[in-house]
Amino acid sequence: MGVLRAHPELALFLCLAVGHLVGKLRIGPITLGGIAGTLIVALLVGAWSGVKVADDVKTVFFALFIFSRQRPKRSR
Question: 55-64: string of b/e by CB count within 10 Å (b at 16+)?
Answer without folding.
Answer: eeeeeeeeee
